[in-house]
Amino acid sequence: MAEEVILRFDNVCFEYAERKPVLDEVSFSIRKSAKLTLMGQNGAGKSTLFKLIKGEIKPNTGNVFINNDATIGTAEQMIAKDDLNLTIEEYFSKAFTEVPGNIKSQISKVMDAVNLTVPTDRKVGDLSGGQQARVLLAYGLIQNPDILLLDEPTNNLDKEGIDHLIQFLVMYDKTVIVISHDADFLNCFTEGVIYLDVFTKKVETYVGDYYSVVEEIQNRIDREIKKNAQLKKQIQDNKDKVNFFSNKGGKMRKLASKLREEIEEFEENKVEVRREDKTIREFEIPAQGLIGDVVTIKSVKVIKNHEPVVKEVDIVLRQRDRLLIAGPNGIGKSTLLRTLVNGSNEGVTIMPGTRLGYYSQDFATLDYDQTVFDSLQSVIQEGTTTENMRAVAAGFLLSGETMGLKISHLSEGQKGLLSFARLVLLQPGLLVLDEPTNHINFRHIPIIAEAINKYEGTIILISHMPDFVEKIKFDQELDLGRY
C-alpha cells in the first residue's frame, strides 16, 4: 500500500502584487513522515512556499491540499524583535490560542529535546544567538505539528547543538521540510529534495540523500551543456552546408532545404540549461590605518550556570591582528562583542578615534525603517560619491528597485549582504564579526573569506562554521570554554 500523502501542491501559481511570478504551475506531493530539503537559488520562492503551506498567503491559481487538517509548526530563522522582551514562558505561550495549564511542563519537555536549560523567567533577548536558535526550534516542537518547517535551523548553533539537532531529526517520526545551506547537516537525514528554480518558476523533486541529489543535479547540468554543445556544432555544420548547396541547382537545392529543416529540429531539441545564482563580486574592505594598540582586553565575562564570572586575560591587538573568539553556545561570546562595541565592557579598551565595523548576527546595526539607499548613505566616508556607493551595492547584488526598499522588506540573506556593503563603505580600523556567514548563500562565502583575509585592519570574529574559519589566518584564539 502506498504511503499516505500529507501535503500536495496542484498547479499552484503565485505572484506578489506588482511583481513578477514566483511560482508557475507548481505541482508536487509529500508523503507522511518524509524528511526533505527545500533548495533553490536566491529569490526562488523558498520562504513563499513555506507561507503557502502555513496558509499565510493563498495561491493566485491552483490549490494547496493538506491531508486531514494536518497541523503545521515552524522554526523561523530569527526571533522577532517584538518578542525579545518576553520571558521564555511568555514566548512559548504565544504558540497556543489557549495557554494550557501544564505549559511549564511542555516547555521543559521541548527544551530538553533541543538540549537547552534556562530558567523560564529569563528574557528571550538575554539569551545568546545559539540559545535563541534552540528556542526557535523548541517553539516549533511545542505545537506538536504533523508537518515541521525549519528555516536555516543550524544558524548560530555550535557543533554540539547541530549534532543534537541531527539526532532529534533522525528519530522524529513526523514530516520535516528544511531550508538550509549546511550541506553536511542536510546529508545526515535528508531523503529527498524539492528544488525551486528561480528562472523557470517550476519545481523539481529528487529522491536520495543530499549529496547524491546535488551530484545528480550537477550531472544533469553537465549533460545538458554537452547536448547543447553537440547540437550547436551540428547546427553550424548544417548552416555551412546550406550556404554551400543553396547556390547550386537541382538536387543540391533540395538537400539545402532538407538541411534547413534539420537545423530547425536541432534548435527545438536544445534544452534550457539550469542557471544558478549570481555570485557577489570580489571585494575589499578598506582599512582606516591605525598605529599602536587598537584593542586591549584585560578581562572577559564567562557565563557559568547562567551567571557571569569575570576572568582575567591579556590580549593586545594591533593593525592586521586577527582574534578568533571560540566556545560553546551560551558561554558569552556575542555578549563580549556587544559590550566591546557599545563601550560597556570595563575590561576592554579601544584606541580613541577607531572606526568600528560591526557585523551583528541579529542585524542590530541596521535600522529596519531605513531604505537600503539611506542605510548605505549613512556610512560613506569623505571622498566616496553616490556613484561609488551604488557600484559597491551592485557588487553585493543590491541594485535597481532593491535600493529603494525598506530594510524590513529584505530577505535575511540580503540583510547580510547589505551589512557587508556597509563595512566596505565605512572603511573601519576594527572589524568585529559575529557569525558573518549566517543567512549567506554558500556561493558567496569563499569570496567573503578572501576579503576578510585581505583586510589590513584588526579583526575579532565569532563563527561556528569550521570551513569558513579554516580559510582565515588567525594570530590568536580566545576560547571562553576553557575558563
Summarize the structure.
This protein has 483 residues and is an alpha/beta fold. It is 35% helix and 22% strand. A 6-stranded mixed β-sheet has the order 5-6-7-3-8-9, with helices on both faces. Strands 14-15-16-12-17 form a 5-stranded parallel β-sheet, sandwiched between helices. Strands 2-1-4 form a 3-stranded antiparallel β-sheet, with helices on one face.
Structure description:
One of its GO terms (molecular function) is ATP binding. This protein has helices at 46-54, 88-93, 103-113, 129-142, 159-171, 183-187, 210-245, 251-269, 333-342, 372-377, 386-395, 412-426, 445-454, 466-470; strands at residues 5-15, 21-31, 35-40, 61-66, 72-75, 147-151, 175-179, 192-196, 203-207, 293-304, 307-318, 322-326, 348-350, 356-359, 430-434, 458-462, 476-479. By secondary structure, it is α/β, with parallel strands linked by helices. The mean pLDDT is 87.
Task: Throw out a few tags for this protein.
about 475 residues; alpha/beta; Rossmann fold; 3 domains; six-stranded mixed beta sheet; five-stranded parallel beta sheet; 14 helices; 17 strands; about 35% helix; globular; ATP hydrolysis activity; ATP binding; repeat
Query: What is the CATH topology of the largest domain?
Result: Rossmann fold
Q: Domain count, please report it.
A: 3
| CATH class membership of the largest domain | Alpha Beta
Mean pLDDT: 87
Report on the biggest sheet.
6 strands, mixed
Poorly predicted runs: none
How much is the radius of gyration in Å? 26 Å
Helix content: 25-40%
**CATH architecture assignment name of the largest domain:** 3-Layer(aba) Sandwich
The secondary-structure class comes to: alpha/beta
Strand order of the largest sheet: 5-6-7-3-8-9
- Report how far apart the termini are: 57 Å
Number of strands: 17
